[in-house]
Amino acid sequence: MNKTRSQRLLPLSGIAYAALLVLAAVAFPAPGGDDSPARHPAWLAGHQAAVAVQGYVRAAAALAFAGLALAVAQTIRARAGEHSAAARLALIGGTLCGATLFLAQAAGIAAVIASHEHAGSQAVSALGFLEDGLLALSSLPAIGLFAAAGATFLSDRLVPRWLAWLTLAGVPLALIDAASFSGSPFEPIGVLGLAYFLIWSLATGTALLRRSVDELRQTSLAAGHLADA
User: Fold this and answer.
1) Measured between alpha carbons, how far is 86 from 66 in angstroms, rounded to an integer?
2) CB 94, CB 70: distance < 8 Å
3) Backbone angles phi, psi at 82, to 5 degrees
4) Domain boundaries in the chain?
5) Of 64, 76, 46, which is closest to residue 150 (Cα–Cα)?
6) Which of 84, 68, 88 is nearest to 21 (CA)?
7) Which residues 6+ apart lie within 8 Å of 123 measured at CB?
């Protein structure tokens, strides 16, 4: 697969992110609530395999989100130039978000290993608190992605106008999502942040993929006209 084709297919990462998170939510058991399973050591002891597989699925989703951030940055660079500050901010913010999500899942998988090795409920719970903390923090760097991408989408009309405004809405929603940790006053509305990330990733991945297909079609038509000439 050559580089150009890889770049054109990269927006599929947004669709993959949404699909993997939905799969992780509906296909695996949960102890109840939004806490990490590791914060319920007795429950985790009886569901180690399922929680481990769920962690790997979510880790793959984290990598997919970083891939979507790269696709967004490439789209901005194609319009604004290689040295675009907006492209750099979008890439850094999205990559840090994906990396933090990935580390959160690593903590969850480490808790499964600790449970399997009978490390003790306190050690397992500590890893669960670490996982939840990283999940909350992961929304903060995404603010850079949403701010840079939303502003550029809106000014340069790289995506439909409604999607540009939806992207900008991610700035306050990411802040709310980061503040919706267990016990906070924002916990009941934390689901809005998760829903937003799913909808935005799916919509943005689809829009950028359509853009890539249109660009490829235009390039093919131009090449055909040159050949006829």
Assistant:
1) 16
2) yes
3) -60, -30
4) 3-228
5) 76
6) 68
7) 114
* 31 three-state secondary structure: coil
pLDDT band at 1 (very low <50, low <70, confident <90, very high): very low
pLDDT of 171 higher than 90: yes
Interval 28-48: pLDDT, tens = 988 877 788 999 999 999 999
CA distance linking residue 29 with residue 220, whole number of Å: 48
- CA distances 66 to 11, 27, 63, 166, 222, Å, are 11, 23, 5, 19, 33
Q: How far apart are CA 162 and CA 184, in angstroms?
A: 31
Percentage of residues of the chain with pLDDT beyond 90: 70
Other CB atoms within 10 A of residue 22 CB: 13
DSSP letter at 34?
S
- Look-up of token digits 């306190």: 122
C-beta of residue 186 within 8 angstroms of C-beta of residue 178: no
Q: Residue 93's closest CA among 205, 171, 183?
A: 171
For residue 40, what is the DSSP state?
S
Q: CB 203: neighbour CB atoms within 10 A?
A: 19
Q: What is the pLDDT of residues 80-97, one digit of tens each?
A: 888 999 999 999 999 999
Contact between residue 101 and residue 65 where contact means Cβ atoms under 8 Å apart = yes
Directed axis angle between helix 121-137 and helix 85-116, to 10°? 170
Helices marked H in 33-120 — which ranges? 41-45, 48-80, 85-116
* Side chain identity at residue 184, one-letter code: S
